[in-house]
């Protein structure tokens, strides 16, 4: 029996809707493989919890999560709670507390989805963005002084360490090495940021020597937006800082058709702690409760979780189901369809179930 413990944190907005859909898909996989079992425990942490308790999660939250194999996260953020409270109160403490230093965001154009780019379809845009997830511009280093006075000042200090940059570069080069094109683009801004980003470039060149079979190039972040939009076929694996990759991965999701199809994995590559898997789209309060949230990103996120846990076949089943369902035109409104969250979920579950029946007949 391959038994995995999963902590589900649906959190805010459409988070509970898509995580519920994701759990349905995991249960369908259990039926497909009697040796596969998910012990899922759901935690009610998030903005509603904050309104009741004054914190986004309990003080011993990390200790509670530490025993799980993986964390399945919905979305964080609410209109009536400041964003810095929701982010620094839940998601970032988990990422930083468990040293999930590799944020991995695959992007591709799925069948049936019309992207905004002209003459661009499935196969033309197939990227993986690796985001440094532990330091950089989101290190939380800085402060405020002279509040409310004309001379008030706020500082936000980006932290780049040799350890942090080296390990994310090695992760990105290794990932590029595992993909067919073996090609990596390193995003930088060393023309204007002359300390941390120059070190970033230097370490990239050093690490590249360890991977002679990987081709790589370097791109300023502003020019990168141009290249992603006009020359998507020229890219494959991409590595960037915490801030740069945060922005570029949202652009990537939009270029693929919708943030509703964009997944994220927050990974501790050494597997000392549980890694966390979440859709990229955020809490989307404008559609909360309408039943039209796109669950595809969450399903893809579940596939990333399974692959991380070593369940490659199960991950491939989810991806096959996603591509089949999207190709059949069963799409939510964000990608031009009329289907509901439940419609898409049922179709994905039905596809997985049909594959079970086909395999049983074959045997």
Task: Write a structural description.
The chain is an alpha/beta fold. The protein contains eleven helices and twelve strands. The protein has helices spanning 15-32, 47-53, 61-65, 83-97, 162-178, 196-208, 221-230, 242-255, 296-308, 312-327, 341-362; strands at 2-11, 36-42, 70-75, 102-108, 126-132, 136-145, 153-159, 183-188, 215-220, 237-240, 263-267, 275-279. The strands form two sheets. The chain has a ten-stranded mixed β-sheet, sandwiched between helices. It has a two-stranded antiparallel ribbon with strand order 6-7. Helix 7 (221-230) packs parallel to helix 8 (242-255), helix 9 (296-308) runs antiparallel to helix 10 (312-327) and helix 10 (312-327) packs across helix 11. The longest helix has 22 residues, at 341-362. The chain starts with a strand and ends with a helix. 46% of the residues are buried. The model has no long low-confidence stretch (mean pLDDT 94).
């Amino acid at each position: 029996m391959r038994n995995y413990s999963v902590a589900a944190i649906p959190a805010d907005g459409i988070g509970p809707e898509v995580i519920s859909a994701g759990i349905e898909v995991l249960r369908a996989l259990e039926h497909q493989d009697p040796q596969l079992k998910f012990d899922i425990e759901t935690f009610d942490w998030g903005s509603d919890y904050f309104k009741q308790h004054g914190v986004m999660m309990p003080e011993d939250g990390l200790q509670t999560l530490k025993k799980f194999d993986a964390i399945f996260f919905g979305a964080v953020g609410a209109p009536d709670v400041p964003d810095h409270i929701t982010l620094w109160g839940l998601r970032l403490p988990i990422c930083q507390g468990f040293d999930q230093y590799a944020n991995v965001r695959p992007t591709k154009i799925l069948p049936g989805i019309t992207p905004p780019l002209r003459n661009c379809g499935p196969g033309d845009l197939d990227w993986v963005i690796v985001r440094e997830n532990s330091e950089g511009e989101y290190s939380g280093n800085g402060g405020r002084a002279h509040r409310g006075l004309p001379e008030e000042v706020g500082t936000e200090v980006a932290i780049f360490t040799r350890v942090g940059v080296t390990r994310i570069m090695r992760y990105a080069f290794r990932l590029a090495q595992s993909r067919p094109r073996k090609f990596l683009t390193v995003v930088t801004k060393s023309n204007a940021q002359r300390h941390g980003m120059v070190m970033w470039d230097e370490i990239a060149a050093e690490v590249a020597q360890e991977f002679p079979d990987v081709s790589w190039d370097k791109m300023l972040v502003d020019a990168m937006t141009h290249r992603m939009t006009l020359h998507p076929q020229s890219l494959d694996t991409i590595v960037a800082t915490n801030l740069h990759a945060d922005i570029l991965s949202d652009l990537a999701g939009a270029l693929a058709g919708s943030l509703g199809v964009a997944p994220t994995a927050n990974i501790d590559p050494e597997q000392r702690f549980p890694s966390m898997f979440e859709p990229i789209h955020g809490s989307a309060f404008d559609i909360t409760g309408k039943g039209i949230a796109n669950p595809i990103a969450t399903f893809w996120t579940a596939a990333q979780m399974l692959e991380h846990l070593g369940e490659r076949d199960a991950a491939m089943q989810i991806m096959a189901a996603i591509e089949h369902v999207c190709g059949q035109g069963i799409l939510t409104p964000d990608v031009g369809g009329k289907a509901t969250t439940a419609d898409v979920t049922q179709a994905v579950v039905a596809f997985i179930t049909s594959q079970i029946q086909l395999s049983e007949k074959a045997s």
